[in-house]
């Protein structure tokens, strides 16, 4: 999914950095006829396969969308710790590899 930030006070780089602080990985990406330089951009690419791999359903995708929308709307005033806590809760509820946290190399 590509998010167009041309009408936002945030550019792609600032939005990418903010969402990284929140715990969500996205990539800044050019949009068609992008007025900003390639290393800054006016867009964000949001990949969803990792969420589907974790088993996210509609409710979880909506929660992620709300975290992203809140962070982008609030910009530098975003409550990063609160948003990060929401992301952490989702990641704990839907681990990438269930059972991996109990696995170790000790004794192998």
UniProtKB/TrEMBL annotation:
<dbReference type="InterPro" id="IPR015424">
    <property type="entry name" value="PyrdxlP-dep_Trfase"/>
</dbReference>
<dbReference type="GO" id="GO:0019264">
    <property type="term" value="P:glycine biosynthetic process from serine"/>
</dbReference>
<dbReference type="GO" id="GO:0005829">
    <property type="term" value="C:cytosol"/>
</dbReference>
<keyword id="KW-0663">Pyridoxal phosphate</keyword>
<dbReference type="GO" id="GO:0004372">
    <property type="term" value="F:glycine hydroxymethyltransferase activity"/>
</dbReference>
<dbReference type="GO" id="GO:0046653">
    <property type="term" value="P:tetrahydrofolate metabolic process"/>
</dbReference>
<dbReference type="GO" id="GO:0030170">
    <property type="term" value="F:pyridoxal phosphate binding"/>
</dbReference>
<dbReference type="Pfam" id="PF00464">
    <property type="entry name" value="SHMT"/>
</dbReference>
<comment type="similarity">
    <text>Belongs to the SHMT family.</text>
</comment>
<feature type="domain" description="Serine hydroxymethyltransferase-like">
    <location>
        <begin position="1"/>
        <end position="68"/>
    </location>
</feature>
<dbReference type="InterPro" id="IPR039429">
    <property type="entry name" value="SHMT-like_dom"/>
</dbReference>
<protein>
    <recommendedName>
        <fullName>Serine hydroxymethyltransferase-like domain-containing protein</fullName>
    </recommendedName>
</protein>
<dbReference type="InterPro" id="IPR015422">
    <property type="entry name" value="PyrdxlP-dep_Trfase_small"/>
</dbReference>
<dbReference type="InterPro" id="IPR049943">
    <property type="entry name" value="Ser_HO-MeTrfase-like"/>
</dbReference>
